[in-house]
Design brief:
By secondary structure, the chain is α+β, with helices and mostly antiparallel strands. It is built from 17 helices and four strands. Strands 2-1-3-4 form a four-stranded antiparallel beta sheet.
Amino acid sequence: MDKFHTLTQLLDNAGCQYTIFDLGRRVSEIDIDQFKAVEENRQPYPWPLQQHAHLSISFWQAGNPPWIWFLRLPLDERGLLKQAAVGDFIKYVIEAMGATLNSTPTEEEQEKLAANPYTFKPNDDKMAMFHAHLRHQLALPASQYYEHAQHYLTGDLGWDQWQGVGLQGLADVCARMKQENNSTQLRKAINNLPMTPLYALLGCLEHCELPEALSQRLIERLTREVEQAEPDLFLISALIRALSGAEPTLLQHQLTQLLANPVLCHPEILVAIAGRCWQGLATADIARTFLLRLAQTGDQALFNQLFADLVMLPALRGMMLQILHGQADPALVEAITKLQQHARGQA
């Protein structure tokens, strides 16, 4: 049992094919070689959330349907996987399924495996998008809700006839936007959808790479909302999250405009940026303005939480630490001083 130190060793030994997705921030596939480097502590986990790796591992042997594990594994302060937790989970798996992973666990073993401290249940949006991406990647048919969602998005049924449209159907359309004219239908629907299906669709788009034409349509909708006398901050938040898969310079431009307007920098919007659009914070100017707006909310607990989360991202870590040590703006200096006092108090 102790010869397996990583999950991929266990899966490779059992002759499984497998695919790995991050489910913490955006539903996005993790390259297997990259994941092996993470497991061997040769590099930090790429997309940590709240000092954990939230991921799915789907694995199967020839001719069998996939098993799926949804795992929440702890990371240390450098973003490296805690090996003891991985070893613990491997022990649970081998007890339930055997080292060859081909014995079907009894109901009791399944319950034990499901109840271990490292499994978690993703929220509905992420679960729908994960299944949509996985089925598309494995060349499996979309769900039974796909065609109805496609039909609805043409507008032919009437935009008010959304009650029968399944979230999974919208997720399937988004995951398959490069086929069957889906991208065009999505673009046309953005300006016509009632609020309930619009929010559902935007929640799916957060987890997709967007073609430029669809990004531009979302930007038009965002611009229109920002210019309202009383902008809907929750809709702005949903639109900016949906743009997380836009081309990086487009995303950075939108964040620059949004952060330039203090009125729009509601905590809800700042949380959306930190959680989904962290790639848009990749320049020092945008990151500094973001932290300033966060400091100006006066919510020190939120500042501490989001800073701690962003500094764990390998892509942002160096820049965030640089900003931490070179500030002139009084509001930001004060927030950073309190952050440091908080960190010392916890040490």
